[in-house]
Amino acid sequence: MKTVVRVWDAPTRVFHWMLALCVVGLVITAQIGGSAMQWHFRFGYGVLSLLVFRLAWGFVGGHWSRFKSFIYRPSDIWRYLQGQGTPAHSVGHNPLGAFSVFALFGFLSLQVASGLLSDDEIAAAGPLVKFVSSTWVGNATFYHKEVGKLILLALVALHLAAIAFYFLKKGENLVRPMVTGDKALDFDVTSSSDNATDRIKAAIIILGCGGLVTSLVTWLG
Q1: pLDDT tens for residues 136-194?
Q2: How far apart (Å, rounded) are the C-alpha atoms in residues 91 and 185?
Q3: What pLDDT score does 74 carry?
Q4: Could you tell me how many helices (H) and strands (E) the chain has, helices first?
Q5: How far is Cα 65 from Cα 58, in angstroms, rounded to an integer?
Q6: Rounded to two decimals, what is the model's pTM?
């Protein structure tokens, strides 16, 4: 008999879909250019706020959202690739999923950082441009527009391909748990805490992160 387990708490799910929305917004506004670049920067600040929130939530969030639940040793990853994974690997982020999460977060952070240092020499310049040399600005702009963007698009494509693979080949729907928060499992595991107190805590953290980013941007401007 299967047991329904809360895997992804509400703050993690909201973070996931808000991040996806911001990334889509960044891609669209970058293609439009012109006056849309104001929104490009806003989406970028949104991503920065979300990344800082997720960093904090990785230590104080629900069980399966905490970093300690999906930081694997190389030997664990190797055994998983050989088809010797444990049942617990199918609950939250499996070893490959964890690797993709950290890669995505890392390159998103680089993209945001390079955006803060970029200048299109027309109308849009990051708030940190005035603090560094033209060489730094040129390198950051090149990476942001020509390298980082392509890496992120490739990572997103791999993420979507993995979702399709698990659904079509393994019959596992990875999207539903990120909507409902729950998984039906035939073994007992720890359930993520997801009560009103947790959600209030998350709201305070995300408001603090957003306020911090807004204050820094305003101060730098």
Answers
A1: 999 999 999 999 999 999 999 999 999 999 899 888 899 999 999 999 998 889 999 99
A2: 8
A3: 86
A4: 8, 2
A5: 6
A6: 0.94
Residues with Cβ within 8 Å of residue 4, at least 6 apart in sequence: 182, 183, 184, 185
Measured distance CA(129)–CA(219) in Å, rounded:
14
Whole-number Å distance between alpha carbons of 67 and 209:
19
Euclidean distance between CA atoms 77 and 81, whole angstroms: 6
Residue 5: DSSP 8-state:
E
Residue environment code for 3-24, b if the CB has 16+ CB neighbours within 10 A, otherwise e: eebbbbbbbbbbbeebbeebbe
- Enter the tokens of residue 134: 């033209």
pLDDT single digits (tens) 95-152? 888 989 999 999 999 999 999 999 987 778 999 999 999 999 999 999 999 999 999 9
If DSSP codes are grouped into helix, strand and coil, which group holds residue 125?
strand
Residues 6+ apart with CB under 8 A from 99: 77
Which residue, chain included where needed, has tokens 């073994």?
187
Q: Where are the domains of the chain?
A: 9-180+192-220
Give the number of other CB atoms < 10 A from CB of residue 64. 24
Say which CATH topology domain 9-180+192-220 has. Fumarate Reductase Cytochrome B subunit (1.20.950)
Q: How many residues comprise the chain?
A: 221
C-alpha atoms less than 13 angstroms from C-alpha of 157 in its C-beta half-sphere: 6
